[in-house]
Request: fold
Amino acid sequence: MNSLEVSRLAYAYPDGTQALFGVDLTIGRGERVALLGPNGAGKTTLVMHLNGILTPGHGTVTVAGTPVRKDTLKEVRRRVGLVFQDPDDQLFMPTVRDDVAFGPANMGLTGEELERAVKGALERVGMLEAADRPPHHLSFGQRRRVAVATVLAMEPEILVLDEPSSNLDPAARRELAEILRSLDVTVLMVTHDLPYALELCERSLILSDGVIAADGPTRELLADPELLAAHRLELPYGFAIPAPAEPA
Amino acid sequence: MGAGHHHQLYLPGASAVHRLPPQCKLLAVFAFAVVVVATPRERFWAFALYALLLAAVAWAARVPPGHVLRRMAIELPFVLFAFLIPVIGMGERTTVLGLSLSVPGLWAAWNILAKATLGVVASILLAATTEPRTILLGAQRLRVPSLLVQIAMFMLRYLDVILDEMRRMRVARESRGFEARDVRQLPAVARSAGALFIRSYERGERVHLAMLSRGYSGRMPMLGEVSASAAQWGVALLLPVSALAVLGLSL
Amino acid sequence: MHVPDGFFNAAVSGSAGAVAAAGVAVCLRGARRELDDRTAPMAGLVAAFIFAVQMLNFPVAAGTSGHLLGGALAAILVGPYTGVLCMAVVLLVQGVFFADGGLTALGINVTIMGIVTVLVGWGVFRLVTQLVRGKGGVTAAAFLASLISVPAAALAFTLLFWIGGTAPIEVSAVAVAMGGVHVLIGVGEGLITAFTVGAVLAVRPDLVYGARGLASSLVLRGPDGATTVEPAARPATAGHGLRPFLLGGVGLTLLLAGVVSFFASSSPDGLEAVAENKGFIDQATEHLMSWSPLGDYGEVGGIPVGVAGVIGVGIVLLVAGAVGYAARTRGQAAAGDDKIKV
Reply:
């Protein structure tokens, strides 16, 4: 079964601005996929549909075989772990422990079970020793790791990260990459940080003007300068990817 | 009014007063305020004893007098008004220091000043010894409708966001030479209120989306129990019960 | 306008407490119809925003500054029922956390600044939006609604003061001072509310409760270039008109009237004294005027303060009439709708 299927998804905001014009994509279980696109391509809008925060104007979203509908929202939100771009949006409880416990507690976990879920999630991001500290006392990189833990505690089917590398210094960026690689879940990473996509994801999608414009191995997409230029994507200065060798 | 620096409301501590469950303290403060208001204004020494009771609570909670005095500034508008009552009041008049003052006005001023001040100090002590979130949990325990508690929770949460945005916008405004001095600047202030709302909403909305994404369905999960023992109730109710005793003696 | 402990006598504090509790209870029930899963956070934000803008003191006239009450804004943004809840929460938090407003005066504060402002604000808003359609109508209605709701609250304060204020001051002097200052504050509040609602309407029309039903059609374009036009899903409009509010208002008036008559009969001299001390009225008014920062100038923007007070009272009376008229036409419209459905 696929972790995520999106079909013919279209959406317009209440003020009339249309963001998505018919998106189709499929992500298999265990895949790590990057969703690339310039600012304003509709990336965040797409992400908001994955757990039913926005309701499609047209088309469907299916998570692990469950269609996203009003009556399946609770189930879908447990299965799709959304990590927001700004960890301050994600961390709203007085301590790291309470924050990580928020999701599982909403799912009905209590006592021992809840404690185990919290500990496990914090361990996976290496933040167990910060459990009793208030989130706003942590560094930005630490806060992002806690934000990932808040979502992992819910044992999601698919982890969706919005610009995971933004505002991170190089060390924090590497630490996060190691954590993401160590996780045994499907990952959809929304970013315009092309080297990070290359480092972590085998496969990439390019979202441009509200439709999926390209879908293929990350290395191949990034080695195609015309494709990148056509969709306002750019590799950082001095960074070049050799075209992949023709398969023998 | 409504001004204040809410980050300085709470003084962290581990005193007996701090450790009391919030619902006990809330009820005690409300009951105390009712007793104070119900006291006839002629019983001067009863008010003195009430003040002593509050001083004892402040001492037990290690709340410095300076903190209480600073926070009492909130009362200022009504204090000014109270001082005017004898001047503009009706009825029999008396002369104090060459000023013609109304006798009922003097009584009214005393009544308002004494009762309002005691009420204000009691609330200040509650806020100084109890974190805002904890007070709300106490309210939840006291069966305040959950929708109200929820709105208040979100309100406290968003207040930081809004104050932050407000400060940033003021800096931006003033760094461009704007100063709110009289009515003519009102449209500028009004326009910034509109921008303030949108900015705070969009920030607050993301927090809310994050909560929805983690299964929030309208009820804050109760993490950590806050139940009160009989002994704790006893300690907390010491304040209103002593006040009631004073009232009984004074009648 | 936050009333401290001891400012009103026990009977008025208690009655207002009962009115406030009943009002909040009604609104808790009604709010369920206004809210979806975004409601509590949105209401919390509106409460926080009102709390914050109440801190945003704006200069009224030389030396004095007023603050918004926010009731009309709350009603327009989240609907009248939830609006009352927002105001109640703001006042509760101010009383308990900030010692702003007495705990025993909570009922009075909620009644005056929560229920009266929301009631009057929403009534005016509905009336104007029915006369003037579209976004412009919403913004204009927001301005008028809050402009009028503030002196209405001042009038309610004066009324309660007349019934059971503990200070021996001429009620007419209180009315002039409160009315005058609050007409000016009302203008400021009207501007801020109009700009806020206007700004939200421009960027996020979905957030303005009072503007539900303004949504335009969506154009959905498929990737193959085919264009389809779909009408926007219209949310259930705020169809539960003014009737509950009118009933609430009538109930409030009756309750207050009951308290008045209670006092009138138990202490007749209290009311007669007003007449007897006629000589004092002029003196008291004069003193009050000279105290009032407005008094130094005698006029604000060309309007003498006394006249401003009278205008305030007049506006409130006009509103009462207008609300009554609106209720009647709405009632007729509703009856008409029923016929069409049948």
Observations:
- Chain B is about 70% helix and 5% strand.
- Chain B touches chain C through 91 residues (CB under 8 Å).
- The two ends of chain B are 36 Å apart (CA to CA).
- Confidence is low (pLDDT under 50) at residues 1-7 of chain B.
